[in-house]
Design brief:
The complex is a heterodimer of chains A (577) and B (286). Helices cover 35% and strands 23% of the residues of chain A. Chain A is of the alpha/beta class. A six-stranded mixed beta sheet of chain A has the order 7-8-9-3-10-11, with helices on both faces. In chain A, strands 17-18-19-14-20-21 form a six-stranded mixed beta sheet, with helices on both faces. Chain A is globular. Chain B has 286 residues and is an all-alpha fold. Chain B has one domain: MetI-like (MetI-like fold), CATH 1.10.3720.10. Helices cover 73% and strands 1% of the residues of chain B. Chain B has eleven helices and one strand. Chain B has helices at 11-40, 42-45, 77-112, 115-130, 133-144, 148-175, 178-185, 190-203, 206-226, 238-246, 254-285, and one strand spanning 3-6. In chain B, helix 1 crosses helix 3, helix 3 (77-112) crosses helix 9 (206-226) and helix 6 (148-175) runs antiparallel to helix 9 (206-226). The chains are: A alpha/beta (577), B mainly alpha (286). The interface between A and B is large, with 45 and 30 residues.
């Protein structure tokens, strides 16, 4: 897509007011503090934040959840909401003070001068309104043009953000569009009135890596046109492509601030360094991403170890798996098409693919939670997918699973101890005392204190919940654990700890992982071999070195090229649209 | 600091709402406690005998002597209401028990049975649901003849389809939940999963529904009684009081307005309590 963005400045309905002042998008923030009032007390969430943004530059604010980065973004568009107190020494947009504007004045600035791109396009777009109408609405609110010119402009805008068939797409509702198209429609509506400053809050989170590359390229093009950008992200590698200046936030404070190159290559603050170190990639294989820790895993109980002694073939073997899902209207969708793989003892097989590639369905078939239409899975050399559930139960303890969202996989009525007790098998631990001992062992193994046992998962942090999910998966001493996007929802430093834990457990227990993820970085860090899936089929299969250094299939090459990297410059020219 | 922008804290407003909500809760508990005492030891609260005739004071309006006035035979209406509480509450609780039991059976089958059976039960629920509750109850009373027991059964069956659909939905959502799948992956048996996860999680919201249903059932039973299909005259069940008062509606408004208000008060108190229990349960889940 190389459409030149054709936005007529000072168009039909534009008033002369802004035309007289020079619109450069220069932003000066100094001493910004945001607090929320609860029970009559102020709880500050952003402390004394200052930065300057020149025309056509990009400042990135990077931090993990709770760092105050999104609140900062919202403060810059006057959307911090009820109960908030925003203070600043100065907040200047093109030398105009925007720190004490009335809601009405904010409304005239948002959209026209500051475009705001939110994270989740599905939530941010009106589900009942065609996306074209959504963009027209943004134009109408600021009195731009007539009905007919607005409709034309909406189509132009969609085209300019690289939406194919814009006339048709403009008439579709958000749920009829793919995630990438939705995000682009959202960007189009933020760009509609040609603002001089864009604030993008996690614009690529939840997008597939190839789509992410497209959206980043679009933002880069916008920046090249002279629009300033404030980019908020949890992901340093996303920011590396675009940012001139990087602010690293933690707990509402800026811990490091400086030139992007310098921050990424020579970070001064401990926290920035740990954040960069925590990003998994091929180079980080075999070493810990996070701080050191020590755990002692308990080997398999005697009787299970006994059963496994005679068998030394692959622990999990899938041949020619096919799965169709019926669609409304009698047709069917081929979710998995001829997938074959085998997983050796103590090995990690990564399955990587974008959404809809069939990787999760493959995982479910491996777990025998979904029956394949054709093909077969064998577990420890025994029939697995082909036998009825009643005969399968005996073998269930040999394979377990960790999901992306552990909370929904825990019974909401149970506390942590009850959840784990439920997973400890009766035959290996017959008495209540033995079971309780095993549970204590398990929490120690995943690096959690015993006090946590009495708590409900709802009261645990995301990382703690995932550790509990891993402890539950370990409870029956399985030979294989299927990890379905198990670290995808975690902050990068927590993800690093969980990955380290998984590596350590594998080293000590010799358990095999079927690791399903959309994240190439995580896959390359952890896997021995990789299966690349697209549209239900396996497009490439090989060792990490083969896949990442010498990809044969065009799709794999595209995936690897889309992978954002911490090196700010080298990748710039390789981003494809 | 060149600027200070404070959006009014929402705390103050929400706290007074919370306090009002708590008042509603205490009020409804007090009202229900009063009715409970009336049902268990009516003698403690009644000022007269509910059956003592006093023809010289027939059809008198509310006064210090007779708080709720008297009926055509000079019987004290307040005492009759107090003595009628037991029967009314029994009908409310009984009908709820019948209704929830039927709903549990139908709802579970509709959610858990094999496709053919579940489909058939589902159709039955839908057909029952299509009948207006009162019409269904009327039909049953017409067949079985009027009595307190009939009222319980009729109202129970009449309100069951609605609850059956709620229970079916609860079981289905528990069945499709992540924790049930996790239990399957752990190799637990069908029975263990049903007992440990599906049933307890599906039944949890019923606590609130039951309280709501008691109030509702009393209103339905009173409607039946008002139509003359309730308990026989000497009894002072509230619906029967309404029915008896109907004849004198032009001369003695209190005979119909006061028992009506009592029914509304109980239903309101039970509903309020149910809503609060529901809120507490939902908060526990989140």
């Amino acid at each position: 897509m190389t459409t030149v963005i054709d936005l007529d400045r000072g168009g039909a309905g534009e008033t002369g007011e802004t035309a007289t002042r020079e619109r450069t998008g220069a932003l000066i923030v100094s001493g910004l503090t945001v607090a929320f009032v609860r029970n009559g007390q102020q709880h500050p969430v952003v402390h004394d934040l200052s930065f300057e943004l020149a025309r056509g530059a990009c400042v990135a604010i990077v931090g993990e959840s709770g760092s105050g980065k999104s609140v900062t973004a919202r403060a810059l568009v006057g959307l911090t909401g009820a109960g908030s107190v925003v203070r600043s020494d100065s907040l200047l947009l093109d030398e105009q003070d925007i720190s004490a504007l009335s809601p009405r004045a904010w409304r005239s600035i948002r959209g026209r001068r500051i475009g705001f791109i939110q994270q989740d396009a599905l939530v941010s777009l009106d589900p009942l309104r065609p996306v074209g109408k959504e963009i027209e609405e943004a134009l109408r609110l600021h009195g731009w043009g007539t009905r007919a010119t607005r409709a034309r402009k909406a189509v132009d805008l969609l085209q300019s953000v690289g939406v194919p068939l814009p006339e048709r797409r403009a008439k579709q509702r958000p749920d009829e569009l793919s995630g990438g198209l939705r995000q682009r429609a959202l960007i189009a509506s933020a760009l509609a009135l040609d603002p001089e400053l864009i604030i993008a809050d996690e614009p690529t989170t939840a997008l597939d890596v190839t789509v992410q590359a497209q959206v980043l390229a679009l933002l880069e093009e916008t920046k090249a046109r002279g629009v300033s950008i404030v980019l908020i992200s949890h992901d340093l590698s996303v920011v590396a492509q675009l940012a001139d200046t990087i602010l690293v936030m933690r707990g509402g404070h800026i811990v490091e601030q400086g030139d992007a190159r310098q921050v990424l290559e020579h970070p001064r603050h401990e926290y920035t360094r740990s954040l960069i170190a925590a990003v998994p990639s091929e180079e980080t294989r075999g070493r810990h991403l996070g701080p050191d820790f020590e755990i002692t895993a308990t080997p398999h109980p005697e009787q299970i170890a006994e059963d496994l002694r005679d068998y030394d073939g692959p622990v999990l073997e899938a041949t020619g798996l096919v799965k169709r899902f019926p669609l409304p209207g009698g047709s069917s969708q081929l979710a998995v098409n001829g997938v074959t793989f085998s997983l050796g003892r103590g090995e990690t097989l990564g399955i990587v693919g974008e959404s809809g590639s069939g990787k999760s369905t493959t995982g479910r078939i491996a777990l025998a939670l979904t029956a394949p239409d054709a093909g077969e899975v064998r577990l420890l050399g025994q029939d697995w997918s082909s036998i009825p559930e009643s005969r399968r139960r005996r073998l269930r303890s040999r394979i377990s699973v960790v999901y992306q969202d552990p909370l929904s996989s825990f019974d909401p009525r149970w506390n942590t101890e009850r959840i784990l007790l439920d997973a400890v098998p009766d035959d290996a631990y017959p008495t209540a005392e033995a079971k309780r001992g095993r549970v204590r062992e398990l929490v120690a193994q995943v690096g959690l204190p015993e006090e946590l046992l009495q708590r409900f998962p709802l009261r645990l942090s995301g990382g703690q919940r995932q550790r509990i999910a891993i402890a539950r998966a370990l409870a029956p001493s399985p030979s294989v654990i299927v990890l379905d996007e198990a670290v995808s929802a975690l902050d990068v430093s927590i993800q690093a700890q969980i990955l380290d834990l998984l590596t350590e457990l594998q080293k000590q227990l010799g358990v095999s992982y079927l690791f399903i993820s959309h994240d190439l970085g995580v896959i390359s860090h952890l896997s021995d071999r990789v299966l690349v899936m697209k549209d239900g089929g396996v497009v490439e299969h090989g060792t990490v070195e083969q896949i990442f250094h010498n990809p044969q299939h065009a799709y794999t090459q595209q995936l690897i090229a889309s992978l954002p990297s911490l090196d700010a410059d080298p990748h710039r020219d390789t981003i494809r649209r | 600091m060149t600027s200070l922008r404070t959006v009014l804290p929402a705390g103050a407003a929400s706290r007074s709402i919370l306090r009002a909500a708590a008042t509603g809760l205490y009020l409804s508990i007090t009202v229900l406690a009063f009715f409970a005492v009336a049902a268990i030891v009516p003698g403690l609260l009644a000022t007269h005998s509910p059956t003592a005739l006093d023809l010289s004071h027939s059809l008198e309006g509310p006064s210090w002597q007779h708080w709720f006035g008297t009926d055509e035979s000079g019987r004290d209406l307040y005492s009759r209401v107090v003595y009628g509480t037991r029967e009314s509450l029994a009908i409310g609780i009984g009908a709820t028990a019948v209704s929830i039991s039927i709903a549990l059976v139908l709802g579970s089958i509709a959610a858990l049975a094999r496709r053919f059976v579940a489909g058939a039960v589902n159709r039955v629920i839908e057909i029952l649901f299509a009948f207006p509750t009162l019409l269904l109850a009327l039909l049953l009373v017409a067949v079985l003849g009027p009595s307190a027991m009939t009222q319980i059964v009729a109202v129970g069956i009449g309100t069951a389809p609605g609850y059956a659909r709620i229970i079916r939905g609860q079981i289905l959502s528990a069945k499709d939940s992540g924790y049930v799948e996790a239990a399957v992956a752990l190799g637990h048996s069908r029975r263990r999963i049903l007992g440990a996860h599906i049933v307890p999680n599906a039944v949890r919201p019923l606590v609130a529904i039951i309280t709501l249903s008691i109030g509702q059932s009393i209103v339905w039973a009173s409607s039946l009684a008002f139509l003359g299909l309730g308990v026989a005259p000497p009894a002072s069940e509230w619906g029967a009081l309404l029915d008896a008062g109907r004849t004198y509606i032009t001369q003695a408004w209190w005979l119909i307005v006061i028992p009506g208000l009592v029914i509304v008060t109980l239903a309101l108190a039970a509903t309020t309590l149910g809503k609060h229990i529901q809120n507490i349960l939902e908060k526990g889940e989140k």
